[in-house]
Amino acid sequence: MNVSTTIKTLAVTAIMTVAVPFAATAQTTDISEDFSLFTEGSEDSPSAAINSENGNIPARYFHTTGWSGYGVHQAGGACALINPDQYGAQLNTVVGTYTGAYVVKVRAKTISSNYQDNTRLNIGLWEEAENQYNQTTYYENFVTTKSEWREFTFKFDNNSIYANSNRMLVSFYTDGKVLIDDIHVYKSTELTAPVAYRATNFTVDGFTANWAPVENATHYLFSLFHNEKTPVTQTEDFTEDFSSLSNGTLPEGWTYTPGTSGAAPEQYVNEEGGVQSAIKIKNGDIITMPDNGGRLTALTFSFIECKMPRNVEDLWGTELIVEMWDGFNWKNFTTVQIDASEYGNQLRHEFDWSRFFKKDKYKSTKVRFRMSGLPDDCAFGLTDFSWSTESSSTLVYDLKDEKVEGTSYVVSGMDPETDYSYTIKAVNGDEVSASSSAVEADGLATPVVEPATDASHDSYTANWQAVPKASYYEVTNYDTYVAPEEEKGFVVLNEDFSKIADTGVTIEKPMAFQNSNYMTLGSNMTYRSGWQCIWGGYADGCFVGTGMTDYNISGELLTPMLTLSNDEGRFHVKVTARSMIKDDELVIYSKGSGKGVRLNITPDEWRTFNVDLTDGQESDIVVFTTANHYPFIIDDIKITQNLSAGDRVYEDLLTYTTDEEETSQTVTNLKKPEVNHSYAYTVTAVRQRQAGKVSSERSAFQNVDTFLGVKDIKDNAAKTETGRFTVDGMKADKNTRGLIIVKYADGSATTILRR
Question: Euclidean distance between the first and final Cα of the chain, in Å?
Answer without folding.
Answer: 64
